[in-house]
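Suppose a classmate hands you a notebook page containing two proteins, each written out with its sequence and a corresponding row of structure tokens. How would you begin to make sense of it? This section walks through that situation. The first entry is reproduced here exactly as it would appear on such a page.
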Amino acid sequence: MSEQLPVSERSQLRRIPSRASYDRALAHAILDVGLICHVGFATGTDVFVIPMAYARQGDQLLLHGSVASRLAKSLAGGVRLSVCVTLMDGLVLARSVFEHSMNYRSVVCFGHATAITDPTFKAAALRDLTEHLIPGRWEDARQPNTREIQATTVLAMPLQEISIKTRAGPPEDLQKDMELPYWAGVLPLQLRTAAAIPDPALAAHTPLPSYVSDYARPGQRSRL
């Protein structure tokens, strides 16, 4: 059986609680598919939400940015934050406009982030960030040098306070609307790749890596 995450005042879902889950394995699976997270935090009188690349490393979430960025400075200083990752699986078309919906899987994490300063752990985190985006690339590109590592802030956020919300399946029309003459159902959505576009400056006859030609997120097909 999967481990159940603890439920806190912040992580408890109150709107349609039947769609909630606190299954750690499910949270990890959603995070492992996604590519972009949105990080929300407050500084003084301002509130920011910033899209970022991320990676999961065990039971922590990795975020990174320039050492000069407001986000890196704020979060490394212990500011509270929330991180959201959403996977869109389909548009749900009901017979009534009011019942239209979406099929999705989402994870919202709450907590604090701390900066990774140890050079070895920092390099390992950058590797995980790269491999999350495109597995196989870390060993097939020039890896960051000391100056580049020093210019990058890598933050780690424990995955302890999490809420998961999902929806799947057909529309949920009212019984009185079931005989209306409108099409109803689900239009599936999926992230796929098109043909890779080589750099115009690429040396002639440089082979296309298989991790590019066969690229797919976990559980998804690689090409349109």
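The notebook's second entry, a different protein, reads as follows.
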Amino acid sequence: MMVDTFTLPVWWDLTATFLYALIGTRYAIMRGYDVVGVLMISLVVGVGGGLLRDILLQDGPPVALRDPMYAAMTWGAAVVGLVLYKKIPRLQRMIDVVDALSIGLYGVFGAQKSMSLGLGLLGAIFVGVLNAVGGGILRDVIVRNEPEVFRPGTFYAVAAILGVTCFVTLSRILSIDADIAAVISIGITVVIRMLALRFGWKTKTLA
């Protein structure tokens, strides 16, 4: 059953797609892939989280397959990355911020879409986090790496979980306007991620 909906504009999703594809482009270039490899990894990383989200929500065909703007955003990001790749070492701090913004944007959009389709709070948090980290998981599976999100690291999934939980709490429980809740939650995600990188905060193994 549909609940009373609140919406974030589609440009939130498109912006997250572009930023995530830019990170995917950097990853592919650093791995030494050719242009075809860069374009494919950019596409997978850019739309992967959204594909997983839409498949789980079963709300018709995934939007990335219906709207050509998504592919255009990923390949536009690939072109930007290819043009700027020689400057990557000097742009590392900006790349870290872009990465954190991508996590935050995709997380809140996934959670918002889930709640608009009637999912409960925990379900929305799960889908939002999967939306945020799904592209990276698909990337690692394709290149036969153990998914980075499963390994100890500097608060990647942790930042996504906290940001998405904040969004769900503010927008649904406290009834704060979705745009305001999204901005606050993305800010929290970015701050947590950047502080973790700055001070070396890391998750630990249990063994």
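A careful reader of the second entry would note: Residues 10-199 form one domain.
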